[in-house]
Amino acid sequence: MTWQIVKIIAIVSMTLDHAAATFVTQSFLIEQLGMSMQAAALVPHILRSLGRIAFPLYAFGMAQGCTYTKNRGKFLLRLLVFAVLAEAPFRLALRNGTLAPLRLWPLPISNVLFTLLIGSLCCFIWDFFRKKELAWVAVFPIAALVLLAERHHTDYGGLGVLFVLLPYLFQQKKWKLAAVGGMVLVLYLASPLIMHYTDRKSTRLNSSH
C-alpha cells in the first residue's frame, strides 16, 4: 500500500469523523433525512468509529515526515503556521460553536495540528540527544511536552503526542506498521473513554468562557 493510498484513507476517515461531529447529528438525520430514532442514533457512532482511523495514520505520516525532512526548522514552522490558522475554525466547528477570546494563558492550542507539532518536536528532541548518546536525557523534555499537550487540551492530548513519537522510534518498516496497528487498536478500545474525557474538557472550556 502506497503512502498516497494511506493519505486518501486518512482524509476520508477524517471527513467522516468531522461530519459526525458537526452536522450529521441525530436530530439532523431524523428531521432532514427522515431516519428512525434507532438508525439516527447509530449512524453518528459508526461515522465516529470510522473516524478513529484518521489520527494514527496522520501521526504515522508526521513521523515519516520527521524522518525524511531536510529542513526541520521549516517543517516545524509550517506546522505552527497552519496550527495557528486552524485554531479559530476548529473551535467554532468542533467546540460547540464557541470561540474563546484572544489571550496568552491558558495557551489557545487545542486543534490536532498542535498535537502533531508537539509530537514532531518530541521526535527531533529524541534524535538530537540520541546522536549525542544521551537518549535518556530526552525523556525529560519529551515528558514536559506531553504534559503540555495534556494540560492545554490539544486534540488527543498527551496520548496523541506519543502516537507521533512511537512510529519515529522504530526504524524497521514492520515495527512501524505494528506501531500504527497498535495505535488504531488503542483508539478503538479507549474510544468511549476518550470521547467522554474530551466532552468533559470541552464543557469545562465552554463554562470558563
Fold and architecture overview:
By secondary structure, the protein is mostly helical. It has helices at residues 3-22, 26-33, 37-51, 54-68, 72-94, 112-131, 139-151, 157-169, 173-208. The protein is elongated and about 65 Å long.
Keywords for this entry:
mainly alpha, 209 residues, single chain, 0% strand, 9 helices
Mean of all residue-level pLDDT scores: 79
Largest sheet: none
**Number of helical runs?**
9
Provide the gyration radius in Å.
Answer: 18 Å
Helicity range of the residues? over 70%
**Ends: how far apart?**
45 Å
Structural class: mainly alpha
Topology as a string of helices (H) and strands (E): HHHHHHHHH
Topology (SSEs and partners):
Blueprint: H1 3-22, H2 26-33, H3 37-51, H4 54-68, H5 72-94, H6 112-131, H7 139-151, H8 157-169, H9 173-208
Helix pairs in contact: 1-3, 1-4, 2-3, 4-6, 4-8, 4-9, 5-6, 6-7, 6-8, 7-8, 8-9
What's this, in brief?
With 209 residues, the protein is an all-alpha fold. The chain contains 9 helices and no strands.
